[in-house]
Design a protein that fits this description.
By secondary structure, the protein is α/β, with parallel strands linked by helices. The chain has helices at about 35-45, 55-65, 75-85, 105-110, 155-165, 220-225, 235-240, 260-270, 275-290, 320-330, 360-365, 380-395; strands spanning about 70-75, 95-100, 115-120, 140-145, 170-175, 180-185, 185, 195-200, 210-215, 300, 305, 315, 370.
Length: about 400
């Protein structure tokens, strides 16, 4: 593999002075005194078990924020995806369309419920499902589509829904990364039959671990309430303040509820979500201004009509130098990383598709690097990131 030589003596990777001695981390969750106070108050209430009053209040406030009927707080987005398929009881030989460039959880929802998946390629410039390739993947066993919003940049969800309605398919939007983002003026969460969000420690709104299943379908919501609490009617027992001393086992299920402590944290985080997303937007605008003229660097294409929440900031660089660029940035004091490998390249999914069939995924993966973006990134750190990227990229051989 060729490596950069131009001005290489100036680079920290070659013994030069780094941009910063204090490493700029790739991610930090944003928390402030309101979060610490909310969790403290919840602990002192002594209601620390699952699906408590703060959890239910968080669900109500998030439903209002998104403009949906039902939000069900879960212990992860992966659990929400599992529930989204468990609730439907599709025949075991059914097939679900999943984009090839995504986290494994997108496929685990169907797989955990005995379904098969059909991988579909993504756009090479932003990693979202290539809508033009969906219909050719549909057959008489197809029952659902799981579109994914990569990096918080919404997929073309209305177009996906049009295809789904045409073929009578169920849609579960994996919006793990896109809380607060919009498409054509509507909040993500309002389009699909079910939408799932993540509140993992890396996400824009965090409860440490956590997720949500969102739907406007009363029947789905009612059954998921039982399923996420081990198939019991415990929620009605809590809400209705019954004094009979027991509740019934009414369905199949698992333990997917969240602690009341994390419901309190979710409420506190939700109150500043728009500010946190806007701060990410300001950082992204700074990067796009500072790096717009850097050779051999492109930004991820934003979906027309969408407003991203800037969960991630990705840059596309020459594939043959990508790992060297990542190492060179690290030497300059700025952490970056590669994000996801295409599903078909992972051990569990080998044989489901070929590199030739997934050219968009391979091109996107081959060029993608993430750089730091989070609300607590200081002005000085943002400047260090931009300076390091410019310094490293200018050392690359000029494209012919």
């Amino acid at each position: 593999m060729k490596t950069a030589t131009l001005h290489s003596a100036e680079l920290a990777i070659s013994g030069g002075k780094p941009v910063t001695e204090d490493r700029v981390l790739i991610h930090l969750p944003y928390m402030d005194e309101s979060d610490f106070g909310a969790v403290n108050d919840a602990v002192r209430s002594t209601f620390v078990s699952g699906n408590g009053p703060k959890c239910m209040e968080f669900e109500e406030k998030l439903a209002e924020y998104l403009g949906v009927k039902h939000v069900l707080f879960t212990n992860s987005c992966t659990s929400a995806l599992d529930l989204a398929f468990k609730v439907k009881s599709f025949p075991a030989d059914s097939e679900v369309i999943v984009p090839n460039f995504t986290y494994t959880s997108s496929a685990l929802g169907p797989l955990l419920n005995g379904l098969r998946i059909k991988l579909v390629d993504v756009y090479p410039d932003n990693g979202n499902i290539n809508v033009s390739k969906i219909e050719e993947a549909i057959n008489d066993k197809t029952v659902a589509i799981v579109p994914v919003d990569y990096a918080g940049n919404p997929c073309e969800i209305e177009e996906v829904m049009d295809i789904a309605r045409k073929h009578g398919l169920y849609v579960v939007q994996d919006a793990a990364q896109s809380i607060g983002a919009t498409y054509r003026g509507q909040k993500i969460g309002t389009f699909a039959d079910v939408t799932t969000f993540s509140f993992h420690g890396t996400k824009n709104l965090t409860t440490g671990e956590g997720g949500a299943l969102v739907t406007n379908d009363d029947e789905i919501a009612e059954r998921v309430k039982y399923m996420r609490e081990k198939g019991t009617d415990k929620q009605s027992f809590l809400v209705d303040n019954r004094d009979r001393g027991f509740y019934e086992y009414v369905d199949i299920g698992g333990s997917y509820v969240q602690s009341n402590l994390l419901g309190a944290l979710g409420l506190s985080q939700l109150e500043k979500l728009d500010w946190m997303n806007a701060e990410r937007g300001r950082i992204a605008a700074y990067y796009r201004e500072q790096l717009s003229d850097v050779p051999n660097l492109q930004f991820l294409r934003l979906t027309d009509g969408a407003e991203t929440n800037w969960h991630l900031f990705g840059i596309l660089v020459p594939e043959e130098h990508r790992y060297w660029i990542m190492d060179a940035l690290r030497a300059e004091g700025v952490l970056s990383n590669v994000h996801y490998t295409p599903l078909h390249r992972n051990k569990f999914y080998l044989g489901m598709a070929t590199d030739e069939e997934m050219q968009g995924s391979m091109q996107f993966f081959g060029r993608l690097l993430r750089i730091p973006i989070y609300p607590s990134l200081t002005a000085g750190q943002r400047a260090h990131v931009a300076e390091a990227v410019r310094k490293v990229m200018h050392a690359l051989p000029k494209a012919k």
